[in-house]
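Researcher: Quick sanity check before group meeting.
Model: Go ahead. Protein one:
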Amino acid sequence: MPPKAPLNPFTFPRPPLLERTPRHLQVKWQDIVIADTKDAFWVLETTHPPTYYLPPSSILAPLAKSSHSSFCEWKGRATYWDIILPRKASSIEDFKDGRGEKIRNRIWSYEDPTDGFRPIKDYVSFYAGPWDCYVDGELVKPQPGDFYGGWVTSEIVGQVKGGPGTWGW
C-alpha cells in the first residue's frame, strides 16, 4: 500500500466537514473485533485529528444507553453508550453474557443531529481506549486529553487540540 498523504489538522475546515471514508476501521478488545467497517464517516475539524463514525450494523458487541449526554455546537446533543468488556475474551460471544467491567461513556452517537450531520444519525464513535482502534490496520493513538475523541494516525502532522495549553484554540 502506498504511503498516505500527510494530514495537517490546522488545514481542516471550521465548521467541520463530514464525509464518507472508505478506510477500514476496527475496534478490538483483547484481539476480539467488537466493531468493523469500511463504510464509515469521518469528521474533519480545525486542529482536531479525524473523528470516525461507524454504522450501527458494524458494532458486534451489545451497547447500553447511558444517562450521560453532551452538546456539540455543530452536531447537536450526543448520546453516550456503555459496554461491558469481559475480563478474558476468546470470542465475541463473551461480550453477550453481561459479565465483566462496565466501561461508561466512551462511545457516543447523535440520535437527532443537526441538518448538516444527518448522515451520521445513530452512527457511533469510539474514544481510542481502553480498547484498541485501527485505521487500515494501523493502531491509533487517542487525541490528547480526555474530552475529544479523535484518532491520531501516523499521517497526522503538527500539533492537535486537546493537550495542555490548547483549550482555547
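Researcher: Fine. The other one?
Model: Protein two, sequence then structure:
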Amino acid sequence: MGKIRTIEYFRVLPRWLFVKITDEHGNYGWGEATLEGHSQAVEGCLDAMIQRFVGYEADNIEYLWQTAHRHSFYRGGPVLMSALAGIDIALWDLLARRLGLPLHVLLGGAVRTKIKVYSWIGGDRPRDVEAAAKERYAQGFRAVKMNATEDVDWLDSPKALETSVERCRIVKAVGLDVGLDFHGRLHKPMAKQLAKALEPHQPLFIEEPLLSEHYEGIKQLSGLTTIPIALGERLYSRWDVKRFLNDTSIDILQPDISHCGGISEIRRIAHMAEAYDVALAPHCPLGPIALAACMQVAMCTSNFAIQEMGLTIHYNTEAGAYDIKNYIQDQSVWDVKEGYVEGLKGVGLGIEVDEEEVRKVAKTANAWAPKGFVGPD
C-alpha cells in the first residue's frame, strides 16, 4: 500500500495526453487520457482531480473511480471520463508493476496468447487504397479499416456512394478484410443506401453508420442489413452502452479505453456486452499507452474480437515523425504477424515508457485541433 504522491500529465505529439502517477514509495504507473481535439479541457479536469486525489491510497482503484464518478454530481461525458481514464489506467499499471505481474493477471488471467489486430488505410478523404492495402498486408496485417466516404450531403446523388463500394472491392481483392467507418458522417437516407450497396462485398463491419445519438435510426438500420454494425467510441460509460444492448441494434461494441473511464469501466462494459452476445473491439487510434491497456484487457476478455492499432494512421503521419512506436523503449511489442500481435508479457501494461522522450516533447507540444467538413453551400 502507498498513498498517491504525484499525478502528472504530458501533452505530446501527435495528439496524445499521457498521465503518470507516483506513490509515496516511488512506485509509478502510466495512463493515457487522450481526447482527440480537446486536450486543454481534459487537462483542466485533471488539474481538479490532482487537487482531489493526491493522498489517496493508490491501491484502492475502485474507490477512487467511484468517488470521481459519483461525487462529481455531473457525471459522465467525454472530458470527465477521459481524465478519469488516464488516472485509472495509471493506477492499474502502478499496482501490477508493484506486484511484478502483467496487468491482465490481476484481471483474471489470460484467455488467449495473441491478439488479432487491424490498422488504418486511406485518410479523411481516402485515396490510393490499393497501394496502402498491399503495404499493410506486407506489414503482417490481415484486416484494415478505412473511412467509408468523403463528405456526403444529407441527401446526395447515389453516385456519391459508388467510390465507397469500389474501394471496398479493391481492398478485399488484396486479401484483407475491411471495416468501413462511416464516422457518423452520413445521414439516414444515404446510410441505408450505402449499407445495401456494400452488402455483396461482405465488409468486416460498418462503424458508426449513424451518430450514436440516433439510436432509433441505428435500430432501424440494423434490421435492413446483414453487415455487422459496430459503434462505441462516443459512448463513455456502461449507462451510455445500455440502450444499444437492450435494443439489440449492434453486433460489435467499440468503447475507447481512454474515453470511457479506463480499464475499470471497459471491463464492466465488456461483461455487459457478453451477456447480449455482442463482441468487444476497442477503439484505439491513439497512443502506445492506451493501446497497451487495450491489449491487457483483450488478453483476459472472452468476447474480445479484434483490436484497432493506430500504426502510421493519417493523424500521426500528418504530425511528422511521432507514432505508436515512439515513447516506448521496445518497439518490437507492436510487431504484427499474420494478423496478430503477441500478448504483452512484461509487468504492468507490458511496455516501458521512454520518460525522457515524453518530457522532452511535452515541453513544446501544441494541442491538436479537430477537423471537420463544410458543405459546398
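Researcher: One line on it for the slide.
Model: The CA atoms of residues 25 and 103 lie 20 Å apart.
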